[in-house]
User: Fold this.
Amino acid sequence: MNKINKATYNYLGKYLTEVRSKGRYTFTLDELKNEFNLSYSAIKQKLYRLKQKKEIVQIRQGFYVIIPPEYSKQGILPPYLFIADLMKWLNKPYYVGLLSAAAMYGAAHQQPMGYTIVAKTPAPRNIDKLKIVFFSKHIFLSDGIIQKKTAAGYINVSSPELTALDFFDNIHKFGLNRITTILQELTEGMKPSALAKIAKQYPNTAAIQRLGYILENEIGTTKISDILHKILMDRQFFVIPLSPQKEKKGEIDSKWKIIKNIEIESDI
Assistant:
């Protein structure tokens, strides 16, 4: 059947069925244009009908997600089923990180309200309707990114060690109490050798200081915190406040060069 004949026989529905048969949930406008001898306007008209029937959802201009019957009630797929395709289409290195990564390790304490993605700077704009939040990052550490299998293939996820450091890299977004609560569970999956490898490459020295201090003084995992202190000894590091959002007043922990300017109150 040639391309023009395909258009005669519900070409788009058949094509989307074929896409799903390959384990994919996504397609792009450019793919359709390449597949069929039809104008953009003709394809968009058909896509509009499918959107009205809630069989597809437009995530970005030109990028669509297929909604199979089992997700028709929700009206959208869980982001882990399409995020890899979306980031490939955007040509952006990425990983599922922070709260969403912690949740995958059973350490979110409570289910995060949104889906957190760390992307290469400049990060894409947030997808508010789907509660997908992008965090921007200049340097990607391949040692800290692992692949998790999903029903749609593999997605990039930050390891427990990288996740912990990233929380302190974004401390102003989450706050120390929340981070400490998450760390109490996240540390159970952290490996000393992996932490050493990642921390040596991690550019934010203040994040290493704060993580090390919390691990030792609030969680009591000196086996892991000592690794971070050894790494700090090979760097030039300065006195910083435990909470950057509070006054720089308080007793100084000489080991970590941390001003204890806040009392930690974990939620656990």
Q: What stands out?
A: The chain has two domains: 3-77, 80-260. The first helix runs from residue 3 to 8.
